[in-house]
Write a structure and sequence with these properties.
Shape: elongated
Number of domains: 4
CATH topology of the largest domain: Rossmann fold
Largest sheet: 5 strands, parallel
Oligomer: single chain
Structural class: alpha/beta
Number of strands: 16
Length: about 475
């Protein structure tokens, strides 16, 4: 049986004592993609239902027996202030409309319903709900509490408060049907975040990932939308695209910043109209897949340069998840190193290794342009090289030397951190302060300190002796 995503994620509640009207409205909404609907003919049943079930929107008739719509509206607004209510009235008299709005109605429509007016009011109310959900998500971000569903983030190893706020945000926006843009540098875990959003959505379909980097327009269209038999030379049979595989689920488009302008137009139509054309077909197909896009480029800068469409950017920007680089969450370094070391030990059939504490100053002062992905590769390499049962500094230094990377952060990382006061220090003062800071960061380990500031161990040792610099602790740290 074909899976179909619920649209919206929570039901639209139709309340009208005329059941024929209720069925007509349900049919109109259903034909236009709104398939998650509830109907009630008795206004007295509304509040009990809301107390046991959350809904996205209420379409409420004004004139009903037992409990009038305007009386019920006041009770709904009082108990569920964030729930949008559209009033259905038999008249558009200004006094009636003003009274409904004063009592908290989001909008009103008059009977007999115009299909266009009904759909416009419904879409606007649902968009307002998304904005309220977004505001709630932003408020939750300020809390930084652990996630309610930690299993969604099992592969994102962290105890960092910034990451906890991101987890809260993901849980809040998960049920939304709106697109999500995941940003961050290479290797920060953007696909893991996208999978967490999919998990939080509780969507019935699967998570489908597509890397669009390097795809020209035809390959992009074929990959996403598929093709019909005979669409081009060699198309001996029809092929479903990835968007169809993601039905009722999530389509994750990685490296979206590399998409050509021509392909961007097709993606924009997919997001706006929820429809697409397989290659060789003139019949549009509808999709209910949620789109999550990711990029390590600054899309706002690309928009300014004219290399990324502004309308597509803002369509993708419905929800933004920005992941910080590893250098901004250094408190997670011990957790990550231990996690990857245990993974590597199992993969290589080794017993669990002990970790020397001296490795952390070295790693924490390394730029990690590849972020967590690079750290994982480095730890796996270190475990594979380490002959004994203790993982120490020496093997990490060998890896850094072999890679040709000094481990010194590049200018983009250090530029903002070097500041001067009103009086410029002398070169001698700078050297002394730099040496002292490096020794302090490495807890007196001369080899590590020398590496951090680009000197040989011998040169730094001579400098310490010449200027009588005292090491943190009573003795020099043993080399690892």
């Amino acid at each position: 049986m074909k899976k179909t995503a619920q649209n919206p994620d929570l039901p639209i509640l139709l309340v009208d004592d005329d059941e024929d009207v209720g069925r007509a409205v349900a049919r109109t909404l259903g034909l236009n993609g709104f398939n998650n609907l509830l109907t009630l003919a008795d206004s007295r049943e509304v509040l009990p239902l809301l107390n046991r079930q959350e809904v996205a929107l209420i379409l409420l008739d004004l004139t009903m027996p037992h409990l009038r719509g305007d009386q019920l509206l006041e009770k709904i607004v009082s108990s569920f202030p964030s729930l949008p209510v559209i009033m259905a009235t038999a008249t558009d008299e200004i006094d009636t409309v003003v009274d409904c709005i004063k009592k908290g109605a989001f909008d009103y429509i008059t009977k007999p319903f115009s299909t266009g007016r009904l759909l416009t009011a419904t879409r606007c109310a649902l968009e307002m709900r998304e904005l309220r959900r977004e505001n709630e998500a932003l408020r939750q971000q300020e809390i930084g509490r652990p996630p309610k569903r930690p299993e969604l983030f099992a592969e994102m190893i962290t105890a960092d408060w910034q990451m906890m706020k991101i987890f809260n945000y993901i849980e809040t926006i998960g049920p939304s049907s709106q697109p999500v843009l995941v940003s961050g540098e290479t290797g920060v875990g953007k696909e893991l975040a996208a999978r967490a959003v999919h998990g939080a959505s509780n969507r019935k379909g699967v998570f489908v990932a597509v890397n669009v980097a390097g795809l020209d327009d035809e390959v992009f269209s074929d990959t996403l939308f598929g093709h019909t038999k005979g669409a081009f030379t060699g198309a001996n049979s029809s092929r479903a695209g990835q968007i169809k595989k993601a039905a009722a689920g999530t389509l994750f488009l990685d490296e979206i910043g590399d998409l050509s302008l021509k392909s961007q137009v097709k993606l924009l139509r997919l997001l706006q109209e929820k429809e697409y054309l397989p290659l060789g077909s003139d019949t549009p197909q509808m999709t209910d897949a949620r789109i999550i896009a990711a990029s390590n480029h600054n899309l706002a800068e690309m928009v300014a340069r004219g290399t990324f469409r502004k309308d597509l950017y803002f369509r993708l920007y419905a929800h933004l998840v920005h992941l910080p680089p590893l250098r901004d969450r250094l408190t997670d370094m011990p957790l990550l190193v231990e996690y990857f070391a245990n993974q590597a030990s199992k993969e290589f059939g080794k017993k669990k290794l002990s970790l020397r504490q001296e490795i952390y100053p070295l790693l924490e002062n390394y730029a990690f342009p590849g972020n967590i992905r690079e750290l994982k590769a480095m730890v796996f390499d270190a475990v594979s090289r380490q002959p004994g049962r203790v993982l120490g500094v020496k093997v990490f230094m060998e890896i850094m030397n072999d890679s040709g990377n000094s481990g010194i952060p590049d200018e983009s990382v250090t530029k903002a951190k070097v500041t001067f006061g009103p009086r410029l220090p002398s070169v001698k003062e700078v050297r002394l302060r730099l040496a002292a800071e490096a020794l302090n960061r490495t807890d007196g380990n001369i080899s590590l300190a020398a590496r951090l500031i680009g000197l040989s161990r011998q040169s730094l040792s001579q400098f310490i002796t010449r200027h009588d610099i005292s090491l943190p602790g009573s003795t020099e740290k043993a080399e690892s």
